[in-house]
Specification:
- The chain has 17 helices and 7 strands.
- With 412 residues, it is mainly alpha-helical.
- It has 2 domains: 30-35 and 266-392, no CATH class; 39-243, Rossmann fold (3-Layer(aba) Sandwich).
Length: 412
């Protein structure tokens, strides 16, 4: 890791961003530069371009026109809304069961099925296999989310191949949204390489097979991405709607709440009430492991997004990061019971993955944090009080009857 960390002059992203980030001569990061395309491109032209492209994908045999991956959070409602009501497609919804489901997440999945009247396939992988792989990726990579990301990215392609549906519609491209990895004009599509290098942190499903663990060939079967021959024979391609529609996740969620009753709720470690609310662990243990390894967490991603849309200032964004990033984790005992390890063992693993560039150990169980936000404080003016008010919450977890992971549920 580079010793001298550079920070974007507009947002809060550091030069150590794991996706890779560059800066121009003015000190503006590539993510902020590409974000400006949202204000300069002709989005009506781009949407019409997409509509013309999709004419070739409308089924003439009564089959589904496309596959749409969905979850109980994120931009799923908006993607399905665009597919059905704007692009006039007949989508097949597919959902990989993460098993860390919250009540609000299950409610949103059910709402998708009911409000949009779509067929939905849900993948439920053997729970013992999921626990086995989660234990392995936690111990080896410091990552509890590998099985979820692997399933989310493989299952839609598997279904597209099985049903011979050549089109998959995704939302926004993470690399574009965060670090400006590509221009929207490049119209990049889903690729096996991006999945392995970035989504799966350089570890594909076959890398799990090792003589040192008990993971078997049959355990990774449901995570295998279809081969190039299969994809080419059907002509499967995955388009990102964010290349054709001016993507603004927050505005889109507000529209989905008003139009379809999407449920939003408060989270412990960020101010965003719309994204990743379907999972007990994403904004808790998974997020903290990110803080351990990279010196920043999801709240910094959320703050950078809001800064770029000019809904908050850089100083306000830093204030929010400092407010949320070290909040106490929740549900740790629940995760430990589920995965089959003690809290002491989990804490030992967490400590193993603390990046010494951002954490200082003064005793066997005493650590001090000197991450991205603290380094930013040296150059950014400090504000005393700021409360963001652009986020709605219409589902209270205090009133929730489900305090444990929901494996399956009607949601209504």
């Amino acid at each position: 890791m580079k010793k001298n960390i550079i920070f974007c002059k507009k947002c809060l992203y550091p030069s150590t961003h794991p996706l890779g980030i560059t800066f121009d001569e003015k000190g503006i990061c590539s993510g902020c530069q590409i974000h400006e395309e949202k204000n300069n491109l002709d989005w009506n032209f781009r949407l019409n371009k997409l509509k013309k492209l999709l004419k070739n994908y409308k089924s003439k045999k009564g089959n589904y026109d496309c596959v749409v991956p969905v979850t109980g959070a994120g931009d799923s409602h908006f993607i399905v809304h665009v597919a059905k009501n704007i692009l006039k497609l007949n989508p097949l919804l597919v959902c990989h069961n993460k098993y860390f489901n919250t009540e609000v997440g299950i409610k949103n999945i059910a709402n998708l099925r009911v409000k949009f009247d779509c067929d939905t396939l849900i993948q439920n992988i053997n729970l013992d296999v999921i626990k086995k792989i989660t234990r392995h990726t936690l111990m080896e990579f410091g990552n509890i989310y590998w099985p979820i990301i692997a399933g989310n990215s493989a299952f839609p392609v598997q279904i597209a191949a099985k049903y011979k549906i050549p089109l998959i519609l995704w939302g926004a491209h993470q690399g574009i949204e965060q670090v400006g990895m590509f221009s929207h004009l490049h119209e990049v599509e889903m690729t096996r390489r991006y999945r392995e290098d970035h989504d799966l942190f350089g570890k594909d499903e076959f890398s799990l097979l090792n003589v040192d663990n008990d993971i078997k060939d049959e355990d990774i079967l449901q995570f295998i991405y279809p081969n190039k021959r299969t994809i080419n024979s059907i002509g499967i391609r995955g388009l990102y709607l964010g290349n054709f529609i001016r993507w603004d996740s927050i505005s889109q969620h507000k529209l989905m709440i008003k139009k379809y009753g999407y449920s939003a709720t408060n989270l412990n470690r960020t101010f965003d009430t719309y994204n990743y609310i379907d999972c007990f662990n994403y904004s808790n243990l998974h997020d903290f492991l990110k803080l351990c390894k990279h010196g920043y967490s999801k709240v910094l991603d959320d703050a950078c997004r809001e800064i770029r849309y000019k809904r908050i200032t850089r100083a306000q964004g830093l204030h929010l990061v400092r407010k949320y990033e070290l909040n106490k984790l929740r549900n740790l005992n629940q995760f430990c019971d589920w995965v089959g390890i003690s809290e002491q063992s989990l804490n030992f693993v967490i400590d193993r993955f603390k990046n010494k560039n951002f954490w200082h150990q003064s005793d066997i169980d005493k650590w001090s944090f000197n991450g991205i936000s603290k380094k930013l404080m040296k150059s950014e003016k400090k504000i005393k009080n700021f409360s963001i008010k652009n986020f709605q919450s219409n589902f209270s977890r205090k009133n929730s009857t489900k305090k444990e992971y929901i494996y399956f549920g009607k949601g209504i």
